[in-house]
Amino acid sequence: MIKESYYQENLLGVDFSKQDLGGVSFNECKISQCNFSQASLVGASFNNCTIERSIFKGSNQSLLSVTECELLDNDCSDSRMKGANFSQTLLKDCNYSHNDLFSASFTKCELIDIDFTAGSLKLVSFCDSRLDTVNFSKANMKGGSLVKCQKVKICLIDASLEKAVISHTHFLDYDFSSVNLISANFIHCNLQGVSFNTNKMMKLSRFINVNLDDAEFIKVDSPYIFLQGAYLNNVKILNSNFLSANLSQTNADNLALKDVELSRANLSESVFNGSRFINCNFESILLHYASFHQCEIDQTELSQAALYKTKIIKSKVSGKEVNKILGSNKEMEQADAWSPAY
């Protein structure tokens, strides 16, 4: 007999398989070695419960609510969990592979040794949570979000972060080479030492106020990439497509660009120190107010660029030392003259 609610009960080895538990609430219960396979838990809630070594395989957990619980060593694979909400909950050694978690949310949770392999995680959100050894390989996280997550140790091999938002979350020395980053948004993140090498899925990706020091972009296809204001110290960009990229207001020491498509890109107001631009396409590139100090520009036609007050100081251009400000534009000079002084 299914109850409408369970309170402070010790449920050991109970068979709930294929049962309708829609809307049922479990409060302060200990649930161990129970079978919920193929059960309907639509709109059910677990509050301050411990659930361990239980099976939820093939169940419908849509709109499930889990608050202040401990979920330990459970099999929740091949289930539907659309709109499920997890809050202030510990999830450890659990299997959520091949799940439909559309629009699910994890807030202030700890996820340790969790498997989301090949799951549908569209619009899923992880906020202010710890992600320690979490497997997202082949998962579709399109439109999802990772916000203020700590200890991020995750696997994203062949995963999709298309149109996802990653904010105030750090991935040091991570390999994004196989991750779909089309229209992905990284905001206030530390991505020092990451690799995007050979990634062909970076069109329209955005990096806003991001640290990309020591990162590598080798054989990358990233037209329209947005890197405004990024830190690009010791970064390598080689044999890549940065067509119409926005690298304005960036700061870069020892940046290396070789065989890079940069036509119609915007590098205005950027500062480059000790950097190298070798065999790059500068056709219609914007270099307004850009500064090159002790840089090398070779096999690259500056004459094709749009220059205005572009500083090239103690730098070599096609083997010749240049120490001057290039570019004049009467209309822009008149606009500068009318700019208010602060």
TrEMBL record:
Gene3D superfamilies xrefs: E3 ubiquitin-protein ligase SopA
> What SUPFAM superfamilies does this protein map onto?
Pentapeptide repeat-like (SSF141571)
The source's domain of life comes to Bacteria
According to UniProt, the name of this protein is Uncharacterized protein
